[in-house]
Design brief:
The complex is a heterodimer. Chain A is built from 13 helices and no strands. Chain A is mainly alpha-helical. Chain A has a domain of 212 residues: MetI-like fold (Orthogonal Bundle), CATH 1.10.3720. In chain A, helix 5 runs antiparallel to helix 6, helix 6 packs across helix 8 and helix 10 packs antiparallel against helix 13. Chain B is an alpha/beta fold. Chain B has a domain of 101 residues: P-loop containing nucleotide triphosphate hydrolases (Rossmann fold). Chain B has eleven helices and twelve strands. In chain B, the strands form two sheets. Chain B has an eight-stranded mixed sheet, with helices on both faces. A four-stranded antiparallel sheet of chain B has the order 2-1-4-5, covered by helices on one side. In chain B, strand 9 and strand 10 form a beta hairpin. The longest helix of chain B has 18 residues. Classes of the chains: A mainly alpha, B alpha/beta. Chains A and B meet through helix 9 and helix 10 of A and helix 3 and helix 6 of B. Bound molecules: adenosine-5'-triphosphate and magnesium ion. Adenosine-5'-triphosphate (ATP) binds next to strand 1, strand 2 and helix 1 of chain B.
Chain lengths: 314, 350
């Protein structure tokens, strides 16, 4: 087990390194004004050159990459250029992370609480009205771009219930709409997956044998089917959780929530290279952590995965 | 001789239909069949002839789009065909009538230890708990020829070979201490040596527990080894039934002849194996007369018009073919088959 986890961790570090390199290279392709910020206009070309040299941008690319990694290793993501000039990127991000985490986890919890039971009931009552209703909902959420129903919710529901349009930390009621909006899509996918995996299991031979054994339909559903259907879920859950946390960009800017999503949009608009770079790293690390957690969860629940030599082999 | 045994279950005029996209398919057409206590009955017939459907109906496991339209399935003075609720079925299913399924590789829950899967049955049907249930499970594992049972108890299905898994499936079936054991193609997925072992195991268990076994198969070779009686099915009907030697060496229905002629043992070297020409009838349509008539080289005019009744050949042997009617012209089976029949009869009389 430990060996397996170690191996997965190593793989992830490699993946992360590749991402770092890509992000790093992309940013080097951007215009250098990004590093000068608002001061650009006030500097002569010679001054600009000195400034950039001081930042280390005139070193060979590989050396730059090396330095970048070294700093990263020490938890230094550089300093913001334009967003909040000279404030360390880590400080800026740290201030925002809490909101994103709260909303992300809240939305995930909400969608799990609604989505998983919905999927189970849909599979249990396959073909009946609940299943059709659920399918309709899933199709709607998948087919209609999120931006559309986000906006509709913000515009009309606030009107309908006389709710404030924008987020205000101290008024709990303003948490509801952004949370619900964020939960809509993951609820649909949890329901869809759960239903699908359960129906998959239900069609398997071992279910027929269990039925022939004289196991009650209900016991069958909850003791055999549900547990087995949870395995593919277990693998993807952590990843979706983290993607939900990071994927709140649009909602955050819609409701003016001071989270990481809004920060990313701002930083891009203001061409703040270091902040963008830092955020991309945070987002991708979260994604990678999600994947590892998923694999570990899967390994824990599925006895067919042989741990140790050869990694995860079915 | 077999007929002296009491009947444990019998089916009368059973008709089963499925609805498929608004169309009605008749999978079982007016079947009557007796099952005697302690015997092993083989049901043979080509794919789609309705063997599995017939057995599923006995266990109340028909797919949702299928139902019994007519007839009775009598077991212990109750008509299983009238059962509607799960509760009623649970009194019989697993407990009185158990099943061994075809593919041992997929028939076990991959995420439960095999011990737990057997024990589930022990707890459910024998009402044992805790240590007692555990001991009983170990005993069952031994019964089906598994060694090192304490260790095996804790293992998962993927740690067993196909033959071993089939043994476990059998252990699950007998864990319920059933009266009737239905084996739907129990050895099709296994290689020949393992096949023989599993059949032997079933035979031993039959002795030990006084089981009545129904084998479903399209492999006549398997049948010859294990069955006391054979029922031959064609297009949802039982067209001939008799003791094993009667079906093998004195069959009367041209379809049974065709089945036996296609045995590899009957072909001579270098010659192409006999195969039945044509295809089985479309079950969506009403079948008039003898369903086999269009493929039957010996078909009479009446075969296309009216369904033949069961003609009695002996106390135990019946066949649905107009060829047995006193008015029918005398028809002999194909020459190769006649030789086989003669050989068999001689062997039997020795
Ligand atoms: N749920 C269903 N809906 C519609 N038709 C069905 C259904 N189940 C079985 N049938 C039909 O009933 C007929 C008999 O099927 P059955 O499975 O009993 O055949 P079988 O003799 O067991 O064949 P095999 O040897 O391939 O297992 C087939 O024509 C099949 O298509
Ligand atoms: Mg079948």
């Amino acid at each position: 087990m430990l060996q397996y986890i170690g191996k997965r961790l190593l793989q992830s570090v490699l993946t992360l390194f590749i991402i770092i390199t890509i992000v790093f290279s992309l940013l080097r392709l951007m215009p250098e004004e990004g590093y000068l910020g608002a001061a650009a206009d006030k500097m002569s070309p010679a001054q600009q050159e000195i400034y950039l040299t001081n930042l280390g941008l005139r070193e060979p690319l590989l050396v730059q990459l090396g330095n970048f990694c070294m700093n990263l290793f020490q938890g230094d993501l550089g300093k913001s250029v334009t967003y909040r000039t000279d404030v360390p990127v880590t400080t800026i991000i740290a201030g925002k992370v809490t909101y994103s985490l709260l909303f992300g986890l809240g939305a995930v919890a909400l969608s799990l609480i609604v989505g998983v039971p919905l999927g189970i009931m849909m599979a249990y009552r396959k073909g009946r009205w609940l299943d059709r209703l659920g399918t309709g909902y899933i199709v709607f959420v998948v087919a209609v771009p999120a931006a559309v129903y986000y906006l509709v919710i913000q515009m009309y529901i606030t009107d309908l219930f006389q709710l404030p349009m924008l987020f205000d930390e101290y008024r709990p009621i303003t948490w509801i709409l952004p949370l619900t909006s964020m939960a809509l899509a993951p609820t649909a996918s949890y329901a869809m997956w759960m239903r699908r995996y359960m129906v998959d299991e239900l069609n398997k031979d071992y279910i027929k044998l269990a039925r022939a054994k004289g196991v009650k339909e209900r016991t069958l559903m909850f003791k055999h089917v549900l547990r087995n259907a949870f395995i593919p879920m277990a693998q993807y859950l952590p990843a979706t959780i983290l993607f939900t946390i990071t994927g709140s960009i649009y909602i955050e800017s819609l409701y003016s929530i001071p989270g990481m999503g809004g920060l990313l949009v701002d930083a891009i608009q203001r061409q703040d290279n270091t902040v963008v770079q830092g955020l991309v790293l945070v987002f991708s690390s979260l994604g990678i952590i999600g994947l590892i957690l998923g694999d570990i969860a899967m390994a824990l629940v599925d006895p067919r995965i042989k741990l140790g030599k050869g990694g995860g082999v079915r | 001789m077999t007929s002296k045994k009491p009947r444990i279950l019998f089916i009368q005029n059973l008709v089963i239909q499925f609805t498929l996209r608004g169309r009605v398919l008749t999978a079982i057409r007016d079947i009557s069949l007796d099952l005697y206590k302690g015997e092993s009955l083989a049901i043979v017939g080509e794919s789609g002839s309705g063997k599995s459907v017939l057995m599923k109906s006995i266990m109340g496991l028909l797919d949702k789009n299928g139902s019994i339209k007519q007839g009775r399935i009598i077991y212990q003075a109750q008509d299983l065909g009238q059962f509607t609720t799960e509760q009623e079925w649970l009194r019989v299913r697993g407990k009185e009538i158990a099943m061994v399924t075809q593919d041992p590789m997929t028939s076990l829950n991959p995420l439960k230890t095999i011990g737990k899967q057997i024990e589930e049955c022990v707890v459910l049907h024998q009402g044992l708990k805790g240590k007692e249930a555990y001991e009983e499970t170990l005993k069952l594992l031994k019964d089906v020829g598994i060694h090192d049972v304490k260790k095996r108890y804790k293992q998962y299905p993927h740690e067993f070979s196909g033959g071993m898994r089939q043994r476990i499936v059998i252990a699950i079936a007998i864990a319920c201490k059933p009266n009737i054991l239905i084996c739907d193609e129990p050895t099709t997925a296994l290689d020949v040596t393992i096949q023989a072992q599993i059949l032997q195991l079933l035979k031993n268990l039959q002795h030990k527990y006084g089981l009545t076994i129904v084998y479903i198969t399209h492999d006549l070779g398997v049948v010859a080894k294990v069955a006391d009686r054979i029922a031959v099915m064609y297009a949802g009907d039982v067209i001939e039934v008799g003791e094993t030697h009667e079906i093998f060496f004195n069959s009367k229905h041209p379809y049974t002849w065709a089945l036996i002629s296609s045995l590899p043992q009957l072909g001579s070297k270098g010659e192409q194996l006999y195969s039945i020409k044509g295809t089985p009838p479309n079950l969506f349509q009403e079948i008039k007369g003898d369903a086999f008539a269009p493929r039957n080289q010996y078909a009479l005019k009446i075969d296309f018009l009216e369904r033949p009744p069961f003609f009695q050949v002996s106390d135990t042997h019946y066949a649905r073919t107009w060829l047995l009617d006193p008015l029918a012209p005398k028809v002999e089976p194909p020459a190769a088959l006649q030789a086989f029949f003669a050989e068999g009869r001689q062997y039997a009389s020795d």
